[in-house]
Design brief:
elongated; 574 residues; Transcription Regulator spoIIAA; mainly alpha; 6-stranded mixed β-sheet; two-stranded antiparallel sheet
């Protein structure tokens, strides 16, 4: 039973459910419904899909995640960060066909979900870290601008389908030049954006999208906006579709794999960050691999019911928490409420202007823009600011799908850059301070005659082994006195691969020929075992080729070479 409840946490929640939570969960579910319905439909239309598919992509994942999701509070559904990725696949492949658009989006969701499931089972939960914070800021800002341009066109009464921001801007300008601008549509859309921004500024707990939906429906009904050229959502198809595999040929399906990888990465990155944040806040533990599998299963289920790719969102989950949610019953209540709407009241959104949905997406995109974080990057680390701008430019130039690939590549290259050329230091003794310290920070520190204390702050592997040798050689050449011994304070070195071991052996031979010893201090146990396995230590002079501490290594050097050196602590000793 214990293993089953770990795999299906919903069963454990049912078993341990407390009656006093019920009112809180139901209330939160009703409140959450007011956000989920308009947001789901808005993200669907922004992705080039019928509005009702946004409800399908909300209802089904809520049921699935309530059963298999590890977080008690997380709420899944359509999200703004995925919208351009979905649209970039749907619009070119569907070629204006609603049936094909749904099939493409559904298959994309299924493939992305399977990627997540396989990755989670393989314990690849760490992949969420492939998008570093600076790169993620830049990528999301590119996504936000892509959304704003495309939805601004809808607010103006027409659509654009460019694969990049530049292409969208060109189509937007062409649309205005060709007279596609609709004044009434623009008034409705601009007013809705204004209301959304104002309500979020005044009180974030107000369900602004629901307010906009209600005002939009009232305005369309009273002013008969449909007859004035304003596009309306109309009646929704009644009920849920039957579960089925999307009707796509293999050639089209194959083209979706690249986009599916991007969708899987972005959706899990968003979900993982929010899941960890909520778990810490609620003093819970959520396994990243389990979260990845649950997200994948939710996406697969969404695709089988004509939905599209989903993730967790920073807007839905906090609303549920603020409304008093205790468990996943909140999501189930919302899913049931939406199911009732689609089954029995399909005319609910008949008079809702499409421009109101576009306004909801624009407001969500604006919330993705994090100027304070960019300012902070500029102040504290210019290199990461440049990295963020590069990620933004990748989305602008190459589009959201290729932008994900570039963003991940930038994160990995940035890591490689730091690992290839890490911080190194010559250590010195400073009067009045315990231990040995970086000479760059303490230029008045004391060096031991003939000894170079060298620290390398990274694992030694193929990419930085040559830098290790070159940097060490340069420090030997510029040392205060002729170097007789090098002690590598190796506590920061967590691993040594075979390439680095071979390079280290070559260095040892070269130093021995020049009459210079090479010793190590503070080697970690596993690294020491690696050196022994590689037979690198065979060329060193036992028993002093390694020492437990830097102080012990220095004392051994002073004793072996009869160096005149008195430490400041020894001078103070009685």
């Amino acid at each position: 039973m214990g293993r089953l409840t770990r795999l299906v946490p919903g069963l454990e929640q049912v078993r341990t459910y407390q009656r006093r939570w019920f009112v809180h969960d139901v209330t939160a579910g009703v409140v959450l419904t007011g956000l989920l319905a308009p947001a789901g439909m808005a993200y669907a239309t922004a992705s080039g899909l019928p509005a009702v598919t946004g409800l399908y992509a909300t209802i089904i994942p809520l049921f699935v995640y309530a059963l298999v999701g590890p977080s008690r509070i997380l709420v899944l559904g359509p999200d703004s960060s995925l919208t351009p990725l979905i649209a970039a696949s749907v619009i070119p492949l569907a070629a204006g066909s609603v049936h094909d658009a749904i099939a493409v989006a559904s298959m994309l969701s299924i493939i992305a979900g399977l990627v997540c499931v396989v990755a989670g089972l393989a314990r690849f939960g760490f992949i969420a870290e492939l998008l570093s914070a600076p790169v993620r800021y830049g990528y999301l800002h590119g996504i936000a601008l892509t959304i704003i341009v495309s939805q601004t066109a809808k607010i103006c009464g027409f659509s654009v389908g460019g694969e990049t921001i530049i292409g969208e801007v060109e189509q937007f300008v062409d649309g205005l030049h060709d007279g596609l601008f609709s004044g009434w549509t623009f008034i409705v859309g601009a007013a809705c954006v204004g209301v959304l921004v104002l309500l979020r500024w005044l009180e974030r707990r107000i369900p602004a999208p629901l307010v906009v939906v209600i005002l939009g429906i009232v305005a369309a009904t009273v002013a008969d906006l449909g007859s004035r050229g304003v596009s309306l959502v109309g009646d929704l198809p009644q009920g849920l579709p039957s579960p089925s595999l999307p009707d796509l040929d293999w050639s089209t399906t194959r083209t979706l794999f690249g986009a599916a990888l991007g969708v899987a990465l972005v959706s899990f990155a968003d979900t993982s960050v929010l899941s960890r944040t909520m778990a810490l806040r609620r003093h819970e533990h959520v396994d990243a691999n389990h979260e990845l599998v649950a997200l994948g299963m939710s996406n697969v289920a969404s695709g089988f019911f004509q939905g599209f790719a989903i993730s967790a969102s920073n807007s839905r989950t906090p609303v549920a928490e603020a409304a008093g949610s205790r468990t996943q019953l909140t999501g189930v209540v919302s899913a049931v409420a939406l199911l009732v709407i689609t089954a029995f009241i399909p005319s609910t959104f008949r008079h809702l202007p499409d421009a109101a949905l576009a306004a909801i997406v624009v407001a969500a995109a604006i919330s993705l823009i994090d100027i304070p974080s960019m300012v902070r990057l500029w102040k504290v680390r210019r290199s990461e600011f440049v990295l963020s701008v590069a990620a933004f430019a990748a989305v602008a130039v190459f589009g959201p799908v290729n932008g994900v690939v570039v963003a991940v590549g930038l994160s990995i290259l940035n890591f490689m850059r730091r690992a290839w050329k890490p911080h190194t230091a010559e250590l010195v003794r400073v009067d009045g301070l315990k231990g040995y310290h970086d000479r760059a920070r303490h230029p008045n520190g004391h060096t031991i005659p003939g000894l170079l204390l060298y620290r390398f702050d990274a694992p030694l592997f193929f990419a930085n082994a040559r830098f290790f040798v070159e940097d060490l050689e340069e420090r030997i050449a510029t040392h205060d006195s002729p170097v007789r011994c090098v002690i590598v304070t190796a506590e920061p070195i967590t691993d040594i691969d075979t390439t680095a071991a071979d390079t280290l052996a070559e260095l040892l031979t070269d130093l021995r020929e020049r009459g210079i010893e090479l010793r190590f201090a503070e080697l970690k146990g596993q690294v020491h075992e690696r050196l022994d396995l590689y037979n690198v230590a065979d060329g060193m002079e036992p028993p002093h080729h390694t020492a437990r501490t830097t102080g012990e290594a220095v004392r051994a050097y002073v004793a072996d070479h009869e160096v005149e050196w008195v430490d400041w602590e020894e001078r103070l000793a009685p």
